[in-house]
Protein 1
Amino acid sequence: MGGMTRFHNTMGGKVEDFVPIEPGRVKLYTCGPTVYDYPHIGNWRAYVFEDLLKRFLLFRGFKVAHVMNITDVDDKTIRGAQAKGVGLDEYTKPFIEAFGRDRDTLAVLPADHYPRATAHIPEMVALVRMLLEKGFAYKKEGSVYFAIDKYPAYGRLSKINLEDRRPGARGDADEYEKESVHDFALWKAAKPREPFWETEIGPGRPGWHVECSAMSAKYLGTTFDIHCGGVDNIFPHHENEIAQSEAANGVQLAHYWLHCHHLVVDGEKMSKSKGNFYTLADILAKGYEPSEVRYLLLSTHYRRMLNFTFEALDQARTARQRMGNFLGELKDVAGPAGQTASVEPLIQAARAGFVAGLEDDLNIAEALAAVFTLIKNANPLLVRGEISKDGAAKLAAFFKEIDAVLAIKPSPAIAASGKIGAAGDPEKRLEAEVQARIEARQKARVEKDFARADAIRRELLDMGIVLEDTKDGVRWKKAGPPKP
Ligand code: AMP
Ligand code: ZN
């Protein structure tokens, strides 16, 4: 044990030893939610992968400074707010709140900072001005564009074919395909009915990419250790972040780029039109536990595609319950019936396997296999009454230790009742279930699926819960006693 941690670096495309800039400290930037809708479980795959990375670094004794942006102004948020006829703030608020709620439900550690784009316009303007001054950007009809021809290093991260580049061609959209490598908007001129800021570079609003460049520099410095996101972020988002930041600052933006592969549902891209679009609330409303969802999201290696199915979720439930059952049996150990076996070698082997797996580019399958091998080897000893009370306590302590990384709380209560959740407190559990259904209903209404929204209201009624729609949102209360 005590080897070197290695990560696959998208920049360069191979697994490399991880050496932080400052010994013992890691500066981590992860691209956060674009708050134009409720986060879906694909987003949570990315955030749970990043949480596994962060928790493992903490477990290995690093101090981690973690920043995650909130994109609360971009093409999508503006379009959504316009369609609803409300301001940006009002539009994004429920999605930001849902993000925080889901994060806590999934035991994802909060970042140190969640900078919001709308609160950092001066920083973005300063960056754009620097790019203009250094000749990497130009103005056109009130907007400012990054001139990719002026930046020959463009394309290293995504290994894009620069032959396809169209010099002089410009694009205003935040998102575009690899096929159209072109000058991209740093600053977008104010348009009628769009929010804008009066600034030194004219009235307008930032492009999406410049937000991350400005905010990462503010909170982590111009060079930091690790930058994460899903593979869809590689091009154009991260490519453009690198171009902006490195052209402006003259130093490398991030030393390691880690990207998780996508989550798909039943082998297909998740989309509203296909009806395979799930939020966390949708899944909890079907009776699954947050820790089961977390287990599923983290148990596939981050660089492999994760195919979400309810069958896979049931398997995650079973795996987690196996740990819970084992812990439950440890609790029941009364004391040595005769000869006791030493559990130390089993624990040491499990710890070594767990750490070696995660050190190897977060090989979670190997890490979990080490844990299940421990259970498999300790079980016969348990059955024969060869584990002392002290041995049982040591085994339980080991599970607590690794749960600092996994955060799946394999509690014995699960095994006993087949149900867990808000730690056995029925009131809390009810609250969580009601909240999940209310969110699912809100989502159905946003999607104008009123039949579904009504069905959820009726389900809640069956549970004895009455909803009240007020102007401050949805309230709920328990129905009074049935009329005689
Ligand atoms: P967005 O809110 O679309 O900006 O995405 C937030 C994060 O979720 C980014 O890191 C994305 O790469 C990631 N993401 C989006 N969709 C998926 C998906 N289906 N699977 C995994 N990660 C995703
Ligand atoms: Zn970003």
Protein 2
Amino acid sequence: MTQAPAAPQENPLLVGLRKRRQAEPCAITIFGASGDLTQRKLIPALYSLAFRNLLPENFGIVGVARTEMSDEAWRGKMQEAVKEHGRDEFRQDVWDDLAEGMRYVATDFADDGGEEHVVRCLNALDEDRGTAGNRVYYLAVPPAAIETIIVAMGKRRSAEGWTRLIVEKPFGHDLESAQHLNTIIREYFDEAEIFRIDHYLGKETVQNMLVLRFANGIFEPIWNRQFIDHVQITVAEQLGIEGRADFYEKAGAVRDIVQNHMLQLAALTAMEPPIDFTADSVRNEKVKVLKAIHTPGPKHVVRGQYGPGYIEGEEVPGYREEERVAPDSLTETYVAAKLFVDNWRWADTPFYVRTGKRLPRRETTIAIQFKRAPHPPFELDTEEGLRPNVLLIHVQPDEGVSLAVGAKVPGQGMTIRTVHMDFLYGGAFRTGLPEAYERLILDCLLGDATLFTRADEVEEQWAIVDAMVAPWKRDRPSFPNYAAGTWGPAAADELLHRDGRSWRRH
Ligand code: BG6
């Protein structure tokens, strides 16, 4: 008798992966539902997840804000937002499915019992949509409102299911306030339930830094002070403050970008290999780097503020002329700093970082500049031939990685010119990159906190920033000190020239 052929076996790794990526039934509550972030990022991200069938079948979204609005009206607004800001084509059937589970609650958390309406709505969703008491609370609200909501919702934790909390930045405004916030949160939630968001960690290219370093054998041996001359991290924006004066006047570039995105990029560049890709292993290594960054002295920090100027030929106002900005504002819109990571791998290797609004173009890059070849055996007739190798990680735009190497110019003689070995995401994968928020929201639904910031990381980041800004209280900068559309104040160039270096050419 012949045996019946065995059923084809599925690759166990794929089965495992699929299992891991299947989120459980749950409801996500967005506090700050009428805000900009919800419309520009959160709802379009949820739509894109629905578009790819990545959301659980039993799913609901509750929008919470103070403005009175019906479910229908909110859904209508969100549909427009998806059409305007979504990265995928708009498909009515996908939207209708998602919208069926969308509810809106108008309430004010400043009022006693303001949370009651939210709790009732969530309980009803459990009944209607089978969301099983599992809750994600997304706090997309101004810092002043965070504490009230955490306490109110923390006291009303659902008896069944799990609860997770996503907290948007800024997480506090200095070390003390961040510690206070962490203490309050921990009264009601475990660290494993807290997802402090830094959307840079959701960017594909930022995660690729880990893959580049730790999935390739060739980089790690040279990823240290012996081979690397210095690192330059740039977060340049063309945009101004986009009407966000109320927030930006209090934050400035150092709290808005350096405290979070910039220090995370530095930590990922400098960290030791984690033993695995789990939340604690990765974050343990990052926090070690943050602890090792020593306080830059005032000579190593440059701040700037843009005056009027031109962006791509268009005249733009200076920061002090922006709506609701004080005419004598001392808020910085540009920061450059020289940081050192005091450990065995990086001692004496500067990490130059810079970020600014109204710079000539949008660019986020990490440039690893290697030491020069010790002795070129060629007669070099141009300075060009002497340029050191640079590994350039393009976080955005033109996402990819490029390695600058010297190459011989065809023809007689030995002329050397720098050329680039390029990997471009668009060319290699021929697929659009997901938005950072898609990845991060899904990770939270799956309970994976690897790409979120832990309490100790946030606090270390604030400790660095507090030390950077402490001397600023003593002196008055003469602002504005760079024109919109230029690469920042002259002092930022001097910061590197003093070391015989210069910012990467633009
Ligand atoms: C936000 C800042 O965190 O990041 C904004 O608050 C900034 O000021 C933005 O414009 C930049 O993000 P991205 O993804 O456009 O680089």
